[in-house]
Amino acid sequence: MMGRRKGEVVRSFVLTLLAIFVMFIILFPVYYIFVVSISPGSTLATTEFHIIPRNVSLDSYREVLFGFSGSKLSENFTGTIEGSAHVQDGRLYLLEGTIKGKVKYGPFTGLVFEIPVKNLVFDVSTDVNAQGQLKGEVKGLFILTRMNDDGTVGFAIMRNVELKGGTIEGTHVSGPMEKYVVARNSGTVRFTRVGKFVNSKFFGYLKNSLIIATITVLLTLVFVVPAAYAFSRMKFFGREHVLYFYLMFTQVAGGLGIAGLIALYGMIVKLGLYDKLPVLSFIYAAGSVPFNTWLLKGYIDSISPDFDEAALVDGASYLQIIRHVLLPMALPGIATVTIFAFIGGWTEFILASLLLTESHQPLSVWIYLLLGGIGRGIDWSYFAAAALLFALPVFVAFMLAQNYIRSGLTVGGLKE
After folding, report:
1. pTM for this predicted structure
2. Average pLDDT over the chain, rounded to an integer
3. What is the pLDDT of residues 268-295, one digit of tens each?
4. CATH code that applies to domain 201-412
5. DSSP 3-state assignment of 376?
6. Among candidates 336, 356, 354, which has minimal Cα distance to 344?
7. What is the b/e burial string over 138-160, where b = at least 16 CB atoms within 10 angstroms of the residue's CB?
8. Rg of the chain (C-alpha set)
9. Which of 145, 277, 384, 400 is most deeply packed, by most CB within 10 A?
């Protein structure tokens, strides 16, 4: 008896060590990328690797999230205007002054600027002639195309500027500005953390990825939920074979490889749908519908039809049954479908690089473009930080919905 127990303990210990070793092999690449992402760039010139990093730096994450590369910014602004001016014949002439403004993203200030101006003309709503110091509020469009390293404005334009609530020697003035203001190597501009993030390359590609993945999830649920209910509950000709044929057809279509991609590319261009984010979501959703329908059908099969019959007796329609009976009870299965659809729209690379131009491409394509020359001239620390940030939303979504996913993948496969 003691020998058997000892043998079980030894076997359990060996299996535990084996599981730890397998997990180490699986997770080591992720850990390696993490170590590279927090290592200073200078340390990556050598081939040495330290399990526990000696010098930890978050510069790569800061550069990815808040690195403003001088790309074009075009946003509405609000601010103030001050300077010496005079009003004559319904026009306000600002001889010399300053415009201070800020750009906001929701409740957050993205950037503030201060630009000296002169010889501006406003069409104002007053017939009174006045001269003195102008103080007022302005709003308009601020376009920044270059910012110098010392914080000065390299090149910027202010358009559609309108004076609101201004006063000059007690005279109220308001009205639009004629022409526009050009600033070259003058004035100052300062980005906040929010402003740097919103105007970083990472955020631009992140926004595209979120749009694609979100529309993919919505379209997938719109088609999958009614289809899964129909295949699970309704009786119609060919019900036992249609879904399996659909699954087989998608696999055959996927097997066409490059020929299928060429045909798809030609069709999208011919229809004038090239470089459209929603089109990519439609393609992703269409490709995921068969498998997700089969998956959700299996879960709905485990829900007793008695609930449907009781709702029908009470006068509920099929849509009401889906909304008030099926959706609450099938939430684990729906959560599983949602995660799979999100991952599909978030991580797909080939179609995104083929059907979208650079300005509309998602994070998956941008990360590939970071590799550039493969092995030379690559900031590996920056690349590793970007790769981990790209994987973070999928990891967080999976962790938040893991209980639903676990039951959604297992319960549907059980039969009473």
Report:
1. 0.80
2. 83
3. 888 888 988 899 999 999 888 888 888 8
4. 1.10.3720.10
5. coil
6. 336
7. bebebbbeebeeeebbbebebee
8. 30
9. 384
